[in-house]
Amino acid sequence: MSKLRKIKLFLGFSLFFIFFFGFVFSSIAVSQTDLFLEIQQKLDGISEEEKEILQNLFSLVQEIKEVEREETEIIEDIEVINQEITILESTIAVEEIAYEKKREDLKQVLKSYQRRGPGSYLEIILDSDNLTTFLRRLNILRDITRNTGELLGSLEESNENLIMERMKLTEKLVMMEEKQEKLRTSLAKKLQVKEDMEKYLIALEEEQEYYFQHLMNIQQVWEEIKPLFSEAAREFSRIIQEDNLPADALKTTFSFLRIKGILDEKTLNDIVIGQPRLPKMIFSLHPEKIEIALPEKNLIVAGTFIIEGGHTLKFQAEEGSFYGMPLEAGTIEELFREGHLALNLRPLIGDNILRSVEIMEGHLELIIIPVLF
Predict the structure, then answer these.
(1) Cβ atoms within 10 Å, residue 139
(2) pLDDT per residue over 331-344, tens digit each?
(3) Among candidates 227, 213, 226, which has minimal Cα distance to 17?
(4) Per the database entry, which stretches of residues form a coiled coil (predicted)?
(5) Is the model's pTM score more than 0.70?
């Protein structure tokens, strides 16, 4: 077997195990904490050059997973659009039948009116023997003309419905084409990233297995950290929501028609320290950026706060690193797939409205609008 073929075979099995089967654990019963520490020690012992190679490999793995996630979403979107197109085509078919029937009914009425002519209807009315007959015939003529008008209006409505539904169908077909083009681009991107990874592995030559083992270790620890971080974010949000903030957590000053509040990072960190169910988390506030670190797991996530519902600060992650290696956007999203970290400040601000938040060095500066009535 040629060297290139061996490398390709190695790459295939590597990706297969990484993305579909996960990792095979040792048969020796080892706790998750001990396993994490063991892997951490191995990763701590590698050189900067080796770390850079691992970083490149880890980045490529993240890219492949992100592209595959994008593919899945696009395929699901295409299926939804296909269903919508089927429903629209069925609706249009029904509308066309109704339109043709109404058009045929109007055609028959107009033919009858044309055969008799307007004069014949006038003669029938004028030939009435008495007032009662005259009024009855006049009402019949009114009914005929009214029915003709209703038929004409109904026909116009059906035509408008048809035009509207056909426009919707055209829009859906355009959307379908756009999604299919996006899918083609995504597939091409995945092939390119996999090709890049293959080239990178070829360049490593006999060291492939060494780096692959370290990559598996990183992936294994990452898979452990994801649920841990998600649970920590949910638990911290629950603690804040259930009024576990100290009464003096928000330092306030009052001015005309607004309140300024200061919430410092020490308060947030003290909450973590006082909650045994939370892992070691450190909040660090810097101008326009908040960092949340799990130092024991070598994970840092940074971002900002956005206001939701006038009372809640929701953490919006923008970047992150794991063992000093940058995390892709899709990888960061995985951490918050089960829910975001949020600070519900209603216990502190009541029904007053949180208008703005600014992240400063060491603290949050909040502007609150008082609700007086």
Answers:
(1) 10
(2) 898 888 878 899 99
(3) 213
(4) 50-116, 152-179
(5) no
From the options 1.20.1260.10, 3.90.1640.10, 3.90.930.60, 1.10.287.1490, give the CATH code of 1-20+30-221. 1.10.287.1490
Domain ranges of the chain: 1-20+30-221, 242-369
* Residue in 307, 331, 309, 305 with CA at minimum distance from that of residue 320: 331
One-letter identity of residue 198: E
Residue 19 corresponds to which amino acid? F
Long-range contacts of 161-170 (CB under 8 A, 24+ apart): 161/95, 162/92, 162/95, 162/96, 162/99, 165/88, 165/91, 165/92, 165/95, 166/92, 168/88, 169/85, 169/88, 169/89, 169/92
Q: How far apart, in whole angstroms, are the C-alpha atoms of residue 141 and residue 88? A: 40
* Residue that is written with structure tokens 């949340």 in the block: 292
Q: Which secondary structure element, helix H or strand E, spans residue 361, and what is its range?
A: none
Q: Residue 152 — very low, low, confident or very high, per pLDDT cuts 50/70/90?
A: low
Per-residue DSSP letter, 19: I
Q: How confident is the model at residue 318, as a pLDDT?
A: 93
CA neighbor of 287 nearest in space, from 364, 345, 356, 354: 364
If residue 298 lies in a helix (H) or strand (E), which one and from where to where? none
- Rounded Cα distance, 162 and 164, in Å: 5
**CA–CA dist 245, 184 (Å, integer):** 50
